[in-house]
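Before a colleague's protein record goes any further, I have to sign it off. What it holds is a sequence and that sequence's fold in token form. Would you go through it and say whether the fold makes sense for this chain? The record follows directly below this note.
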Amino acid sequence: MLSEMLSELMRLQERSKDDKNARARRRIVMGLREVARGIRAHKVKMVVMANNLDEYGAIDSKLQKILDLARVGELPVLFELNKRKLGKALGKSIKVSVVGIQNADGAHEQFKKLKKMVGFP
């Protein structure tokens, strides 16, 4: 369900770039810095982290910072897919470690179900 939602949001985000009439809004942000910035700006509504991040030691402090920001902002955090599958769900050929969902329009049902599964009302 998560990869379905991410691929749909990415498709809609890409479509809004091409369509002159569509309101160009970011639905998804990727990367440690972008997600942290989005959380601080109160734009991110859900954080998705890869579940195989503990293999690398260098990014632990940045990940902890994002987790702390998410806890303070009372945001749901999902540890579901690995880095490769997360990137693939977004239609990217690169590995993605962190994704922030800013706008769930177009995939709102899956968003609500995932929030409920994590334990957020």
Notes: The chain has a mean pLDDT of 86. Residues 2-118 form a domain with the 60s Ribosomal Protein L30; Chain: A; fold (CATH 3.30.1330.30).
